[in-house]
Design a protein that fits this description.
Blueprint: H1 3-10, H2 47-60, E1 62-66, H3 88-91, H4 96-102, H5 113-122, E2 127-133, H6 150-153, H7 161-170, E3 174-179, H8 209-227, E4 232-235, H9 243-250, E5 260-261, E6 290-294, H10 311-323, E7 327-332, H11 342-358, E8 366-367, E9 376-381, E10 384-389, E11 397-400, E12 406-411, E13 421-424, E14 427-431, E15 442-448, E16 463-466, E17 487-488, E18 495-514, E19 524-532, E20 535-543, E21 549-567, E22 573-574, E23 576-581
Parallel strand pairs: 1-2, 1-7, 2-3, 3-4, 4-5, 6-7
Antiparallel strand pairs: 8-9, 9-10, 10-15, 11-14, 12-15, 13-14, 16-18, 17-22, 18-21, 18-23, 19-20, 19-21
Helix pairs in contact: 5-7, 5-11, 10-11
This protein binds alpha-D-glucopyranose.
Length: 583
């Protein structure tokens, strides 16, 4: 029963800084990411105006990310290595002239934007974000600001992004652009991760960062925002972005009223959406957020990468993200010929089929009321709770830790069906058919009376202590019910423990751990113990990737729990530790 959830949750966490992608040896130097919130451009908005601007995005839930550029020509291979992605130029330190030669082979004659938009629509996606310019600096649009663009540098010679905007709109989809504002590995002066400002691995890189901003980034963003009717601008890896430099770009945002931006511009510009990359935050985030994720291990096309996530895994991630109030931006790296890889198409097809039956449980939903469910996740739309059952109970009996009266329970796969509901010990019990209608995720719409009432989380607000902490990072922060504030040990401490007293013995069946949003990521060895007699007994142990952990436990009844964290780099920290009741 728990195996899927282990897999599902282990990838989860809380760090919001854009991660170094696969094969990028070092994180983008100087990267800082603002918490999504108010922006200079939107600060004058009333909350109601902001809600109106964000409405379509919050309803949409599911989008397609496209990483497409000149890097699709080497397709991941340089020298005898075949594990590069869109970072290939930087990771392999390819000289500018050599890299620019790839563009002469970039001729996507099979590119069919109408087909791409139709494929996204059929997959149930409601918006697209395409790389208008990635870190390689290559503009996928005609640009007067740099010759390093699709019209001037390729045999194809035509705009690539404009036709997709038109095609997306024809399908009723929203569309936005990713634009790498700081990093630019071809235009002189652009930031090069791993190098000092103005520097790079090729003498041709030498240049002034401000001149690059003024002569390339600012004019190109202006070109994009004045030429194309887009709804999203997706910034990335904010290197060297002082507030003054940021303002030059942030001021352009108002060129397109209604534009939604992410939190990666830097320099104090919060943007609208937080951007957890390649993971699902264990406790979600309070505001608008969007997990972006690859289907295999690369954003850009890699012909050798066959490490595909299964369709089941991707459907679970979509449901889990929605259950925590986020959006899912799922990536495809098209080939240099202009096609989606067949494995990506197959996954889109499966997700689309599932959404055709179960879309009501995704679109327009908000965070579900349960911090943890042993059998799946739940989303919500007013007084409708959508129970996503990943593990169909063998005995046909589903326990839902909810105290409300239930008006009806219907399987979305069997409209008109009505499942028997009883209640017992403050829980709702549903009687299910023997067979799951969908072995991936069968969804039940549960109509309840009033606001959802759940038992309080035993660890939230419980008495906490720790072996050490930094002023302002007290142990209680790790039990405040959200991942916003943290417990953190002082800088010189490598091993520290955090203890919680639940006030009385409680039967615990799982735990969730969010880690602080810091770079480099905290890779922490954790050990969870319970107080027994005069000592402690270990009940779980492992290592994090800086993205937190959520893990079922062999049920244990105890009052005091202790989490010991050992950090190889940085000092131990926990943004939130939650102990979930055994069912
Ligand atoms: C990162 C990477 C990049 C990828 C992106 C997606 O910051 O630098 O290659 O485009 O995140 O979120």
């Amino acid at each position: 029963m728990k195996i899927v959830l282990i897999g599902l949750c282990l990838a989860a966490g809380l760090v919001q800084i854009p991660a170094a992608p696969t094969n990028n040896p070092a994180p983008a130097e100087g990267v800082t990411v603002e918490p999504a919130a108010t922006t200079p451009a939107t600060a004058v908005e009333t909350p109601a105006q902001r809600d109106a601007r964000m409405a379509w995005w919050r309803e949409a839930k599911f989008g397609l990310f496209l990483h497409w550029g000149v890097y699709s020509v080497p397709a991941g291979k340089y020298g005898n290595r075949t594990d590069y992605g869109e970072w290939i130029m930087n990771s392999a330190r390819i000289p500018v002239a050599e890299y620019q030669a790839y563009a002469r082979q970039f001729n996507p004659v099979k590119y069919d934007p109408a087909l791409w938009a139709k494929t996204a629509k059929a997959a149930g996606m409601r918006y697209i974000v395409i790389t208008a310019k990635h870190h390689e600096g290559f503009a996928m649009f005609p640009s007067a600001a740099s010759k390093w663009n699709v019209v001037d540098a390729t045999p194809y010679g035509k705009d690539l992004v404009g036709p997709l905007v038109t095609a997306a709109h024809a399908e009723g989809l929203h569309i936005g652009f990713y634009y790498s504002q700081s990093q630019d590995w071809n235009n002189p002066g652009g930031a090069k991760s791993g190098f000092k400002e103005g520097d790079g691995w090729d003498p041709a890189h030498k240049g002034d960062y401000d001149a690059y901003l003024n002569n390339v980034a600012v004019p190109q963003v202006r070109e994009l925002l004045t030429t194309y009717p887009i709804d999203i601008l997706w910034w990335d890896t904010p290197m060297y972005m002082t507030p003054e430099r940021t303002a030059r770009l942030a001021n352009l945002v108002k060129l397109r009223p209604g534009l939604i931006t992410n939190n990666r511009l830097g320099g104090g510009f919060g943007g609208d959406t937080a951007t957890p990359e390649q993971f699902v935050p264990v406790t979600g985030y309070p505001g608008d957020w969007e997990t972006c994720m690859t289907m295999n291990d690369h954003w850009g096309y890699n012909a050798w990468d066959q490490d595909w996530k299964s369709s089941t895994d991707l459907i679970h991630k979509l449901a889990e993200i929605c259950s925590k109030g986020g959006n899912f931006l799922l990536n495809i790296g098209p080939t240099s010929a202009g096609e989606f890889p067949p494995a990506s198409i197959a996954r889109l097809h499966d997700i689309g089929q599932w959404l055709r039956v179960n879309g009501d449980s995704i679109y327009g939903t908000t965070r579900g009321p349960f911090p943890y469910l042993s059998w799946g996740v739940a989303t919500r739309k007013g007084n409708l709770l959508y129970l996503h059952i990943f593990q169909w109970p063998k005995a046909g009996r589903l326990q839902v830790p909810l105290q409300n009266q239930v008006k009806s329970a219907t399987l979305l796969a069997q409209p008109g069906s009505s499942l028997p509901v009883t209640s017992q010990d403050g829980q709702i019990i549903l009687t299910l058919p023997a067979q799951a209608p969908d072995s991936t995720d069968s969804v039940i719409a549960l109509e309840i009376v009033g606001q959802p009432v759940t038992a309080p989380l035993p660890s939230a607000g419980a008495h906490a202590t720790a072996s050490a902490w930094l002023p302002g990072s007290e142990p209680a922060n790790a039990f405040d019910g959200t991942g916003e504030k943290r417990w953190r040990a002082p800088a010189n401490v490598k091993s520290a423990w955090l203890e919680v007293d639940l006030g009385q013995p409680v039967a615990i069946g799982a735990f969730g751990l969010d880690e602080p949003d810091v770079w480099p990521r905290l890779h922490q060895h954790y050990t969870l113990e319970v107080a027994e007699g005069a000592g402690w007994r270990q009940i779980a142990a492992g290592k994090t990737q800086g993205h937190g952990v959520c893990q079922p436990l062999a049920p244990v009844t105890a009052q005091k729990f202790r989490l010991t964290m050992v950090c190889e780099q940085g000092s131990p920290g926990v943004a939130e530790l939650q102990l979930y009741r055994a069912e």
